[in-house]
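User: Fold both of these, please.

Assistant: Here is the first one.
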Amino acid sequence: MSDSGDVAQPLARYAAWRRAGDLVFLSGVIAVDPARKLIVRGYDDIPADARRLLGATGEFSTDFREGPILAQSWFVLDRIRATVEAAGGRMSDVFKLVQYFKQLDHFPHYSRVRRLFFPGEPPASTVVEVSGMLPSADILVEVEATALIPLHG
């Protein structure tokens, strides 16, 4: 595994990812940066270039409503990207995503962000609504990924 700070970091005692032959299984990723003790709650918690990419308006009412799910979606998918790269792959190697939402109404916002990370053929997908996620009620989305990354080349 890479020492990169961008790799998804577990919040408890479990692996961020595990390899089984050519398959790489990622644990569920949420919008939390344990190193900074930060829960992503909106645009202010992600880099400026990501805010621009996601369409932050600077209008409080719009950014307040859309910012949390868009910022968390970007953060989670960016951590998945970094983790897959640490395992030796690319986002195009991801063939399955399982996405958990506190509100299914957030899926269209997430889907816009997901297209940025998977501009070609999207992975197979499962979407589930759940009542809550750890570590707090501020977590809106969790995503787990499975990738096919051959051990040798």
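And the second sequence with its predicted structure:
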Amino acid sequence: MTLYLGSCHCGAVRYEINAVINRVTECNCSICTKKGVLHHRVTAENFRLLSDESQLGTYQFGSKIAKHHFCKVCGIHTFSRPRAAPEQYTVNVRTLDNFDFQREQPEIESFDGQHWEEAFASLK
């Protein structure tokens, strides 16, 4: 596993993860599409918030299970607590400071978030 550091644009929100990033998920739901997120899921043990939690804003909609966290200063979405596994985190790999997406070229897996219930059921 590699230690990756992540942050928002202004640096008010900073985090780190221990992970092997060989696959990311691109969801086509309304919020992920608008944010341009590429997700990578990590367990709570492999995630650590380095900045003050007061810098985080949280957006919830629909079932209100998922928690979409963003920087209150610059608005960048850094990570979520996903609906499919709220005990874990999905980080936005685009916010990892030391992950070169072009060089690493992880597999991009699609998730049909526009039809969330059916797509999630097909994963089981």
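Strands lie at 2-7, 14-19, 23-27, 39-42, 47-49, 56-59, 67-71, 77-81, 89-92, 107-111.
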